[in-house]
Write a structure and sequence with these properties.
single chain; mainly alpha; about 65% helix; about 0% strand
């Protein structure tokens, strides 16, 4: 039988108790989305900003600059298309107010 100390992480039990659980990705996204929305940015644009920020972090880690230069515009284009489709879906689902032009 292997003793418990064989799997020790080198941390005391008090250190483990003080640690707080990491927030989930959804919580981080919700907080960032809330922040952008309170600054007057519409939801679709806020999501687009968050997606581009995440994609930018990923592409910055690419070692090959040629690959990065190729991938970055593709990602930006796709995120822009997604935002455009989302705006169209949102405006189509929104009921028209009396006297409002289509």
């Amino acid at each position: 039988m292997i003793g418990r100390t064989a799997f020790s992480t080198g941390e005391s039990s008090s250190t483990r108790r003080r640690r707080r659980p990491m927030p989930r990705i959804g919580q981080i996204e919700d907080q960032a989305l809330f922040y952008l929305r309170t600054r007057g940015i519409d939801e679709v644009s806020a999501r687009q900003i968050l997606l581009l920020a995440f994609a930018s972090e990923c592409t910055e880690r690419m070692k090959e600059s040629a690959v990065r230069a190729f991938v970055q515009p593709l990602i930006e284009s796709r995120v822009s298309q997604m935002a455009h489709m989302s705006r169209e879906a949102t405006s189509a689902a929104r009921p028209q107010r009396e006297g409002e032009l289509q």
